[in-house]
Amino acid sequence: MKRALCPGTFDPVTCGHLDIVERASGLFDEVVVAVALSPDKGGGPIFSVEERCGFIRDACSHLPNVSVRPFDSLLVDLARELDAKVIIKGLRAVTDFEREFQMAQLNYRLDRDIETMFIMSIPEYMYLSSSAVKEIAGFGGNVRGLVPDEVSDRLQDRLREGR
Ligand code: PNS
User: Which residue's CA is the closest to the ligand 1 atom numbered 13?
Assistant: First the structure.
């Protein structure tokens, strides 16, 4: 059984993330999307970890070998607990490389039995990030097609509530 982890903060999940998860699901027997609590990232996520997991579960309901769970630990500890030998990350442009390279090296230093593998983003989603989506939605811009429709609806509500 080849199990892979797709970790991230996913605040919120984008169509770019979902494309990576779907492609990973075709390569591994099982893919676990691991949603980090990340309470400190960027001033704190706008969606709770339960909400973030729920969005991904709904969007991946057609993928029977994909499951979603929250985590609040070292990623390599979760990988060991789940017996996952591979961490999958999406790579967009070179701007991602430095941070991803650092995380991959640190995770390798922490556990040499766990490999990080990268899936290149398709050109359509190269420019897409959760923070850009939040910024666009925050100014009332249209994010349909960049995130699942459910996320787009909830994003507008959440940002209105926050005003
Ligand atoms: O969505 P992101 O910001 O790319 O996700 C980063 C994440 C959650 C994968 C990373 O911060 C992480 O693995 N956090 C868990 C803590 C950990 O293991 N840190 C050491 C490796 S950098």
Answer: 75
